């Protein structure tokens, strides 16, 4: 659709919506005035501060036409008396009532020199009634023929006047007031409460999503609308001084349109900082001017509010609609078009109410702008909630996408960890094979080579058997050490003790080998375990072959220090002893020291006439820190 066509369609839709709204409101309207009610259009006026009726022949009485809205009396408060003369047909017998149509003042009524009622002329602060006043005249006060009605009008500020006055059947007029009050008060109050609650809701949405400033400005606009509509619900000013309350409706209406304009800027992504600064300046200076004139000059206030401020606000309302029409030029956005229709509709309703205030339109309900709220709230609220839900849906979609990506990455990481674990297991198996090959090469391999050489040299069987036995013993040590991942050091030493006990007892040597509880559950890595077993086996074999001992004792315990602990192994025999510094390598002492050094341990050899003791101390802290397999 072309731009001009979209704009024309928008204007047409706004006009159609306004026409439908007027038709809907007309169904609730009543005939003004109701049938059978007389409109009193002529009266006499007298300015007097007296609270008692003035004399009928007072020369200060002057004729006026009702409604008298020129405003007279510069006193504070302003007071004026109005005299109305009514002829009653003798055939009419009913209960009468005097009806003051939206008096914007407080009043007291006398009929034929008798006080009917006082609506609060002596109350402070003085009330001013924006809703209709009904004074039911007691039976008997109205007589056939000429009747004189006095109305005393009192206002807080320096202008007293009297609006339209009706006289008719009391039941008819009270029923008319009840029906119109249902719209002007009950329904309006419901709308005010709903508007205020929605303002809080959108303020909460803005608090949760501070970047979405449109929610904040829409909330402020709703609050201003609620305040503006609330103004008509107070007959007595809720704040003091009373003049400070009078401009509140004008100010709230102006700031409603200003907030709506900024909301449209944010909503349609229109960058107009100069326009917004100008709006804020007007929004700041306008209320100051209104309050000053309300406090100092009634005439200036009645010019500033209705004839300067309100028309300016209506023009701002048209600017809001024009801004949304401008947004249509950038694309066929349905939301912008709907908002433009609603903004233009509001401007039309506002202009209608302004014409009503100026007396060009007369209806029973009065102002229509409060009843346009459901349309605005429905449209604006639906659009903003739609955007909010769309944002939540997008957030949920992004969260689901993020969760899917995280799950994908987690699966990739788990697969990577599994691959690393497999590689680590493969590396561990490779290292274990290399260790076994190295241990077998250093032990079994060397011994088998030695046995093969002895076969070649045809060495005696006993010597060859000893070499082969050593080869088998070393193989058992390698097997025991390889099982250390699942067995404690105590279990491995128990296996070695069982084998060595049989060999020693076969040679007539008694073995004493208690296993300390502190070392029973200790677990070392395979390499450390193998070195410990080889040192033990070689020390025992040396004692068996060279010491001539009859008793051999092995001690194994864990010694705990303040900072570190160590494994202590001691092999003691009661043999003949030897000089450690003068022995040859054939006794294997060099092998013991080499294995202890490889283990990171210390070995002490003490020998004398009473026997020999070989002590091995393995630092558990060093062993465990140096190899991740030191403990399970």
Task: Describe this structure as you would to a colleague.
55% of the residues lie in helices and 17% in strands. By secondary structure, it is an alpha+beta fold. It folds into 3 domains: 216 residues, no CATH class; 138 residues, Sandwich (Jelly Rolls); 167 residues, Heat Shock Protein 90 (2-Layer Sandwich), CATH 3.30.565. The strands form 4 sheets. The protein has a 6-stranded antiparallel sheet, with no helix packed on it. Strands 13-14-15-17-16 form a 5-stranded mixed sheet. It has a 4-stranded antiparallel sheet with strand order 1-12-6-9. Helix 1 crosses helix 7 and helix 4 runs antiparallel to helix 5. The chain is rod-shaped and about 165 Å long.
User: Got a strand count?
Assistant: 17
Secondary structural class: alpha+beta
**Radius of gyration of CA atoms, rounded to a whole number:** 55 Å
Query: Alpha-carbon distance between the termini?
Result: 78 Å
Helix content: 55-70%
- Oligomer category: single chain
Biggest pleated-sheet summary: 6 strands, antiparallel
Number of domains: 3
* Poorly predicted runs of 5 or more residues: 622-632
Strand content: 15-25%
Shape: rod-shaped
Question: In terms of topology, how is this protein built?
Answer:
Blueprint (H helix, E strand, L loop, with lengths): L2 H24 L11 E3 L1 E5 L15 E4 L2 E5 L5 E11 L7 E6 L4 E6 L2 E5 L14 E4 L8 E11 L4 E3 L1 E6 H39 L4 H18 L17 H20 L5 H24 L1 H31 L5 H24 L15 H85 L3 H22 L6 H18 L3 E3 L4 H4 L5 H22 L3 E10 L4 E9 L15 H11 L2 E7 L2 E9 H7 L6
Parallel strand pairs: 13-14
Antiparallel strand pairs: 1-12, 2-3, 2-5, 4-11, 5-10, 6-9, 6-12, 7-8, 7-10, 14-15, 15-17, 16-17
Helix pairs in contact: 1-7, 2-3, 3-4, 4-5, 4-6, 5-6, 6-7, 7-8, 8-9, 9-12, 10-12, 12-13
